[in-house]
Amino acid sequence: MTIRNSVLSAFLAIVLAPGLAFAATDPLSYDDPGMHFRPPDEWTRISIDEADTGAGKAPAAVYLLRRNDTDVRTILVTIDGFNGTVDELERIHEGDLRTQTEGTFIDKHEKTTLANGMPAYWLRVSEGKDLGQYKRRFEWVVADGARSIIVTYLGRQGMFDDKEARAALASLYVVAFPRGHR
């Protein structure tokens, strides 16, 4: 029985290893000990050096989707140190959004959960003051006990809706950040 189990284990390791290696090296995935995110296949991950996000904090990951010349969308994964509740983070983040860009309006902020049950806020934000230059952003705002995690879906207003943004950000899951991990 032991030899049989050893042979079965070796066989499974050989058969499953390529799939496991692919998951660990997926170029679209952003993973760390407290979170995972992967956009749909049509997105392209941009190196942080190439990304001109205009955001105050440097993003951990940037993704781009170009449908045509007027419909270009960006996903930003921004992580920063934060020791507080998701409610505190959401209030601070809303204030930051309003001071960063003139003409910012928070259309919606809904306390909900991610697919894995982690408490989060879903925001819908309008930005801009000049006709034809309005931007729409949808964001997941999450606190994992040690960090703030903001995942933003950004593009030209009118080109996409809540349902499309949620679908593109659906893979996000966050867990409590492991103690003692950096």
Give a description of the structure:
By secondary structure, the protein is of the alpha+beta class. It has helices at residues 2-24, 86-100, 162-168, and strands at residues 30-32, 35-37, 44-46, 61-66, 72-81, 105-113, 119-127, 135-143, 147-156, 173-174. The chain has a 7-stranded antiparallel sheet with strand order 3-4-5-9-8-7-6, with helices on both faces. A 3-stranded antiparallel sheet has the order 1-2-10, with no helix packed on it. β8 (135-143) and β9 form a beta hairpin. Residues 1-23 have low confidence and may be disordered.
Largest sheet: 7 strands, antiparallel
Total DSSP helices:
3
Q: What is the arithmetic mean of pLDDT?
A: 83
Assembly context of the chains = single chain
Rough shape? globular
The largest sheet has its strands arranged as: 3-4-5-9-8-7-6
